[in-house]
Specification:
The protein is an alpha/beta fold. The chain has 13 helices and 16 strands. The protein has 2 domains: 260 residues, 3-Layer(aba) Sandwich (Rossmann fold), CATH 3.40.50.2300; 130 residues, Response regulator (Rossmann fold). Strands 2, 3, 4, 5, 6, 7 and 8 form a 7-stranded mixed beta sheet that branches. It has a 7-stranded mixed beta sheet with strand order 10-9-11-12-13-15-16, sandwiched between helices. The two termini are 37 Å apart.
């Protein structure tokens, strides 16, 4: 595997019914000085001399099942490959296999909390699960129980604030970072632009919009002409799209996390004759699962942000990391088709990042794990794009805070530095 530490800091955007699956995966830990067992150096729950078990609660059915399934598949593939090679060597000198127990929360916060309660006594740590409301539902319980909630798939900044969330760490860039990247790109344009905004009515949408407005601050050629919201539980945004179309905006900033709604929004805008350039969040920008069925070719530009390579892109067809990843995803991840969502790549990278922490945890405790997890700097995990890296040492930022802006080219994405 082509994996190494970067020689310089990654370029960051200033400031992504209970169905049990038993699969190969990885484990987590506590903050130093917490937890009776950890303080005494005795093993925490979920770890033995031979194995470590990690829990995931994520949507495996329902509207967000596509990306949710990927949050399990990538980790499963990564550690399935490692287990086949004999396991992972930990900092205490022992080699362990890594297992995951994953439960379906259908993107329902109450079910996510129930899943956590079911898993917490048997797993070393929780990881990779998708969703802001679902991860928030059991964040306080994890703090009280001193169970790591490590490298989860939410851009909510609260999970990367060490004081507020001592047992947590997000993996994907915070929403404000992604939104600001879009704003800064648009601000490079010399033309005049009218912007319409549709955002999810929660922390997810608010964070994206906050970052976007920060990015265009001071740009006299950019005007926000209309701004609407929708609920994550809505089944249609046709009314919002119709109203926003009447603004004649040439830029549409759509902070939307629900796959079916994103597809229908792309389709509805065409039906009413509105074809602006779109800015899409990284988690709802899949070429195969969203852009193609949505008819993205009708628009002058579809932009998103990324930190991982896109396997569908011809530019990465022979890439060493991509070839290894796709083979393992098929063999060990129970995912035979080309990954439709970037979450598959992200969770593979979560696995690699967890391995770094495992290699540096000196005791089989959650305390030691969290200390090691928060000490990873400038690690270019497999599948990372140039100018991005994993850095867990900056308080207030997730493991990945650096992104690049990309434009859809019909199959994948090309990195862009200016708005044309």
């Amino acid at each position: 595997m082509n994996r190494h530490f970067r020689s310089r800091r990654a370029v960051g955007i200033a400031a992504v019914s209970a169905l049990a699956l038993t699969i190969t995966a990885c484990g987590g830990g506590d903050d130093a000085g917490r937890g009776g067992d950890a303080a005494e150096g005795a093993p925490s729950p979920g770890i033995t001399d031979d194995s470590i078990t990690l829990g995931i609660t994520t949507p495996l059915s329902g509207a967000t099942a596509g990306p949710g399934t990927c949050t399990v598949a990538g980790v499963k593939a990564y550690f399935g490959m490692k287990n086949a090679e004999g396991g992972v060597e930990f900092g205490d000198g022992k080699t362990r296999t890594v297992e995951i127990e994953a439960l379906d929360d259908t993107y329902d916060p109450q079910q996510a909390k129930a899943n956590y309660d079911q898993l917490k006594d048997d797993v070393f740590a929780m990881t990779a699960g998708l969703g802001t409301p679902t991860n928030r539902a059991w964040r306080e319980a994890a703090i009280a129980d001193e169970v790591p909630q490590a490298l989860i798939m939410t851009g909510d900044p609260i999970f990367s604030d060490a004081e507020e969330s001592p047992w947590q760490l997000g993996f994907v860039p915070i929403y404000q970072n992604e939104g600001q990247a879009f704003g800064e790109l648009l601000a490079t344009s010399s033309g005049d632009h009218k912007v319409a905004i549709l955002s999810q009515n929660d922390d997810y949408g608010e964070g994206y919009v906050e970052g976007f407005k920060r990015g265009i601050e001071g740009a006299d050629n950019i005007e926000i002409v209309d701004e609407l919201t929708y609920e994550a539980t809505d089944t249609s945004v046709d009314a919002q799209i119709t109203e926003l179309a009447s603004s004649d905006a040439d830029i549409f900033f759509n902070a939307m996390s629900v796959t079916p709604l994103m597809i229908s929004a792309l389709q509805k805008a065409q039906q009413v004759g509105w074809t602006p350039s779109w800015f899409l969040p990284s988690n709802t920008s899949s070429p195969g699962a969203i852009l193609e069925p949505g008819g993205a070719a009708a628009y002058p530009g579809i932009f998103s942000v990324a930190f991982s390579k896109t396997p569908q892109s011809p530019a990465f067809a022979q890439d060493e990391d991509v070839v290894e990843y796709l083979a393992a995803l098929k063999e060990y991840g129970d995912y035979p088709d080309p990954p439709a969502f970037p979450h598959c790549q992200w969770s593979w990278m979560v696995g690699a990042t967890l391995e770094q922490a495992f290699q540096n945890m000196e005791e089989p405790t959650r305390d030691s794990f969290m200390e090691a997890l928060r000490s990873i700097e400038d690690f270019q995990a497999p599948l990372m794009l140039p100018d991005t890296a994993v850095n867990t040492t900056e308080d207030g930022q997730p493991a990945v805070s650096s992104v690049v802006v990309q434009k859809f080219n019909g199959r994948g994405y090309d990195t862009v530095e200016t708005f044309e």
